[in-house]
Amino acid sequence: MPEAQKEEIAQKFKQAEELIGGKPKKAFDMTKVKALDAEKLAQFNALTSIEITLGENKVALNYEMVSFEKKTVTINTRTFIPNVIEPSFGVGRIMTVLMEHAFYLRNMDGNECRRVLKLQPFLAPVKCTILPLSSRSTTEEQLNKVKEMFKKAKIPVQVDASSATVGKRYARSDELGTPFAITMDFQTNEDQTVTLRERDSMKQIRAKEIDVLNAIRGMIDETDSWEAVQARFPSAQVNENE
Questions:
Q1: What pLDDT score was predicted for residue 96?
Q2: CA 219 to the chain's CA centroid
Q3: Distance CA 8, CA 151 (A)
Q4: Which pTM was predicted?
Q5: Is residue 193 in some structural domain?
Q6: How many angstroms separate the CA atoms of 128 and 141, rounded?
Q7: What is the pLDDT of residue 89?
Q8: CATH number for the domain that contains residue 125
Q9: Same domain membership, residue 220 and residue 146
Q10: Which of 122, 171, 177, 183 is the most exposed place for a label (fewest CB within 10 A)?
Q11: Are 222 and 179 a contacting pair, CB within 8 Å?
């Protein structure tokens, strides 16, 4: 029984014992109980009757069957069986499982396979790669301006200004799990528009730099989707095999 229920029964026993002048000195000494008149005997039985449930059956206990005793016990060792088991599962295993589920090979034209890490935008450590088409198409000032926009928005980006083709640089970005890539080309100089490429579909749209920034932020926060972004802006046709 819960402790509170046992305390309640003990208090009733104490009231019943007052009817017989105190607790009997000998266990199960019912002489004083039997000497009670009918009214007090009925009170005594009402206070000392206990009904407990065992399975589907109810069992009645009386004063002769139950006794209460309080003891102070010093417990040096306490053993128990835990009902929650927490296995040893380090962060290294979690990262391995995460990358195992996210990694796949993408078939390109000409039987080429590219490695892709399909991390969700909110989970990817780098959210976007900025790719100047060439040193002639993008000035250092333009590149720094776009980087500063992302820095103020607290969106982690990296710049890949190597001499490799844009297709190869896209492939490097995909392998690292970066979900988006911005390409700055000759048209950027004229109207401050850039292309935005989505890693999984490999589709691209063209929009103003600030619009691209807001679209990426929305997709990271999951308040926007790539399908919605594609519907809002014109597409850019790019052949990554060339």
A1: 87
A2: 20
A3: 67
A4: 0.61
A5: yes
A6: 19
A7: 74
A8: 3.40.50.800
A9: yes
A10: 122
A11: no
Which parts of the chain have pLDDT scores under 50?
none
User: HSE of 86 in the Cβ direction (CA atoms, 13 Å)?
Assistant: 1
The answer to whether position 106 is within a domain reads yes
- Tell whether 67 is covered by a domain: no
Kindly report, residue by residue over 50-98, the tens digit of the pLDDT. 888 878 888 888 888 888 788 898 888 888 887 776 677 788 888 888 8
Residue type, 122: F
Instruction: Give Cα separations from 144 to 152, 183, 184, 217 (angstroms).
Output: 12, 14, 12, 19
Based on the fold, state whether residues 174 and 228 are members of the same structural domain.
yes
The predicted pLDDT at position 226 comes to 96
Number of domains the chain is built from:
2
Instruction: Kindly state whether residue 113 falls inside one of the protein's structural domains.
Output: yes
Q: What is the pLDDT of residue 131?
A: 93
Residue 200's domain comprises 95-232
Integer angstrom CA distances of residue 77 from 41, 74, 170: 46, 9, 63
**Within this chain, do residues 216 and 138 fall inside the same structural domain, yes or no?**
yes
**Looking at the structure, do residues 122 and 206 belong to the same domain, yes or no?**
yes
